[in-house]
Specification:
single chain, seven-stranded mixed β-sheet, six-stranded mixed β-sheet, 38 strands, about 45% strand, globular
Length: about 475
């Protein structure tokens, strides 16, 4: 099981037996629904199976929630049903198919037919009925894990009701007789966790920003164990909470908190104390904050990137309390897998365009440096850019432009080339946003063929207090 309890991997020594003769089946990978499954950390042996080293691995959901019969509502952006196979030998490759598949995977819901049935897509990869399906896993050149998808989906059986549970069994058998088994507990109904958040917050530069942490369950069944993540980006935490993990890389700005003993029943609301507090940056014009909440048994949305490691904090412990109402003030509950808040700090910037005047002789090549300067008082912050559009004067031609390295000894243009309505060359470039008082420039080399005027224009700077100086001329005056 991973650190957040979301999935388990069953790994065991091979149960060797003489290979049985199997039918020739498709050499494509047959699959069970999964968007993509990421193998996390080392495996754990299944019950009763001695310690396994490296080898064949079968990874399945520990728990999977089913919508009640006929109900299409539920959790937005629900994590899909995932099954993953790794370590199966795949001899031959695409052009030399073997006589038999590399493995077969049986998904068996017999014994739970009053709770779940298997919905199979018609294909040549899987055969069976609503109670049991067997899929062939064919060879391929990639030795990595097979992410199985879109062939079989468990759905609630007719007549089942919220709270009913059952067990799906898996049996993976490879061509050399290796066997792996696993199981998924299915539950009719699902917990739907929502997080109270504000879309916009205003704070003073360098001041304290408070984020109340309140969640509710609008689903049909209770959730046992809750996970929460917050990424404060430019804001530093005032303390690191003892039931949250922090990675030094993020300087405490990213916290992943676990509450394994917390049970939230259908319709219940829970708030945590103390509220989360951060120090706003002193110079940055704004900051974004993202938050997520999830059942520990399913884990967060895979693409959200919440860390699974880190050290526990040494501050207060976040303590859950049953609440009858949401926090005071403007805000709303969100069922999205990520809730975003913009923190405005009341500062503006003054980005001034830097142009050039070229007085070289016609027919020669001249280098110019153009760009932008931040006159303050605010800053956009790390990882942000200022977009500059350089319009080349008519009669001149760019013979050398800024480049960036994309690989060893491989460069590409930094700026995007196009033409404007007057058929003048334009170069659109992203400048790394600079702190107050600093300048960023780029060098272009022009061949001067005749006098003319172009410009440097700064765009997409909504926090700029003086947009009038966002344009500067580039003049060819030989």
């Amino acid at each position: 099981m991973t650190s957040d309890g979301s999935r388990r991997r069953v790994v065991a020594h091979a149960a060797q037996s003489s290979p049985r003769r199997m039918r020739r089946l498709s050499r494509h990978v047959a699959v069970v629904p999964v968007v993509l499954g990421v193998l996390l950390g080392g495996g754990a042996c299944g019950p009763g199976e001695p310690g396994a080293g490296h080898g064949v691995e079968l990874t399945v959901p520990k728990v999977y929630y089913l919508r009640p019969p006929g109900d299409r509502a539920g959790q937005a952006d629900k994590v899909g049903f995932k099954v993953e196979v790794d370590g199966v030998r795949q001899p031959g490759g695409e052009r030399t198919p073997p006589e038999r598949p590399s493995a077969t995977l049986t998904i068996d819901a017999r014994g739970a037919d009053k709770v779940v049935r298997l919905k199979r897509r018609k294909s040549s990869y899987c055969t069976g009925d609503t109670a049991s399906v067997t899929c062939s896993i064919g060879p391929g050149p990639d030795p990595g894990p097979l992410h199985l998808a879109d062939e079989v989906t468990p759905i609630a059986a007719e007549g089942s009701k919220a709270g009913d549970t059952g067990l799906i069994h898996y049996r993976l058998t490879t061509a050399d007789g290796t066997v792996r088994t696993a199981g998924t507990r299915v539950v009719v109904g699902e917990p739907v966790l929502e997080l109270w958040h504000r879309e916009n917050v205003t704070a003073a530069p360098g001041g304290r920003v408070t984020f109340p942490l309140t969640i509710r369950n609008t689903g049909e069944v209770a959730v046992q164990g809750v996970g929460f993540g917050i990424d404060a980006q430019a804001m530093a935490p005032r303390q690191r909470y003892r039931n949250c993990r922090y990675m030094d890389f993020h300087k405490g700005r990213v916290a992943v908190c676990r509450f394994p003993d917390l049970r939230v029943g259908p319709g219940e609301t829970v708030t945590f104390t103390p509220a989360l507090e951060f120090d706003a940056p002193a110079k940055q014009v704004s900051s974004m904050v993202r938050e997520s909440v999830w059942p520990l048994v399913t884990g967060p949305w895979p693409d959200d990137g919440w860390p699974t490691q880190g050290d526990l904090g040494d501050g207060d412990e976040l303590t859950p309390h049953t609440a009858s109402r949401p926090p005071a003030g403007q805000g709303a509950f969100s069922g999205a897998h990520v809730a975003w808040t913009n923190v405005g700090l009341g500062l503006g910037t003054d980005f001034a365009a830097i142009g050039a005047t070229v007085r070289g002789k016609l027919g020669t090549e001249q280098r110019i440096s153009i760009g932008a300067r931040n006159n303050g008082p605010g800053e956009l912050g790390p990882g942000t850019v200022v977009r500059m559009v350089f319009t080349v004067p008519l009669g001149s031609m760019v013979v050398k432009q800024p480049m960036r390295a994309i690989d060893v000894d491989v460069d590409e243009p930094l700026c995007e080339h196009a033409f404007d309505a007057q058929q003048r060359d334009t170069y659109t470039c992203d400048l790394a946003a600079m702190p107050e008082g600093e300048t960023r420039t780029l060098d272009f080399t022009l061949r001067l063929n005749e006098p003319g005027t172009g410009q440097v224009q700064l765009r997409d700077s909504p926090s700029d207090n003086r947009p009038g100086n966002g344009t500067a001329l580039v003049t060819i005056a030989p």
